[in-house]
Design brief:
Arc Repressor Mutant, subunit A, about 50% helix, three-stranded antiparallel beta sheet, about 130 residues, mainly alpha
């Protein structure tokens, strides 16, 4: 299981071009429900591809594709064990994604209620 830790958000202005590309690639990999389900399976520890396939009911070739996308995005590691591959979630990569998310606006002390009103007025005028 991934240890739950408090992750301080990074300053979005401090993300340089290559870091932004890496983060975007990882977030893009998370944009598929099957891949999210794979990460949920791996959240409780290392699993063999055969164990993942028992839970994620997709054809083997499609599962391999999803695992490859997650590996290339740096979200999981795979280690060959004979004929099988054991996959592990990279907690550091997940923490980096959490850190890259913008903070909750309420924590910044921003009053967004006036924005909602302005947006509603703009829609009414359109």
């Amino acid at each position: 299981m991934i240890a739950s830790t408090s992750v301080e958000p990074i300053e979005l202005e401090s993300i340089d071009g290559s870091a932004a590309e890496t983060l975007a690639s990882a977030f893009k990999a998370l944009g598929d429900p099957t891949r999210l389900r794979i990460l949920a399976v791996l959240a409780d520890g290392t699993h063999c591809v055969c164990e993942i396939q028992e839970v994620i009911d997709v054809p083997g070739n499609l599962l391999s594709h999803h695992l490859k996308v997650l590996r290339e995005a740096g979200l999981i590691d795979g280690e060959r064990r004979g004929r099988w591959i054991d996959y592990t979630l990279k907690a550091s990569a997940i923490a980096a994604l959490a850190k890259a998310l913008p903070p909750d606006p309420s924590r910044l002390g921003l009053d967004l209620s006036s924005c909602a009103g302005a947006c509603a007025r703009d829609e009414a005028q359109a």
